[in-house]
Amino acid sequence: MLRKFGSxxxxxWIGTTALFLVLAGGTAYAANxxxxxxxxxxxxxxADVRDDSLxxxxxxxxxxxxxAVRSSEVAVDSLTGTDIGPKAVxxxxxALGSLATDHIENESLYGSDIAxxxxxxxxxxxxxxxxxxxxxxxxxxxxxxxxxxxxSAQVNAPQNQYVSATADCPxxxxxxxxxVIGGGYFSNYPVxxxxxxxxxEDTWRVTVYNDLGGEGTYVEAxxxxxxxx
Length: 229
Known about the structure:
Elements (H helix, E strand, L loop, with lengths): L1 H23 L119 E8 L3 E2 L5 E7 L10 E9 L4 E9 L2 E7 L8 E11 L1
Antiparallel strand pairs: 1-7, 2-7, 3-6, 4-7, 5-6
């Protein structure tokens, strides 16, 4: 008798639960049974996604459609170098005039990286070019004729002393004096260059202070000479 009463009570409970679900319009789902077809389009919002600060939360790259993330989806100033692939940024991604010297690694540029005939005198430091960097062919196109490089005699530069060297432009066989159009210096040891400039229209002077080199240091001045057209 007691067994029959328990069975009857269980059946009543199940029936009451089923009636409640039907009347309430509810639907029961087992875990992991909801799929994309069960969700109305455009009804899942950011608030429905577990916060990425919680375990298992946030969206991963596999959740994103290729090309779905654009500039508007990325916070301003949030990307760093580690977010960009090696050699992924080309000239088209860099705004004109946006790079400065602190964006370029020291000693990373070569001659092939600089446009032909794009450097002027203001781009060259005093005494930065020596006669070993000069090439007759590299001077083609200048409005001068009869180019040549004149070198001064070696001038000893004792330690902790100032010395100067000068190179003069010669005259040709007709007595025409060539003018100095550039110049520089050479030293067999490092020295501190104080001046490297045209002393007059046909002479180049270099003044150095030897607080870097050792005994036996010397300096030469050189002048690029030519007839002006």
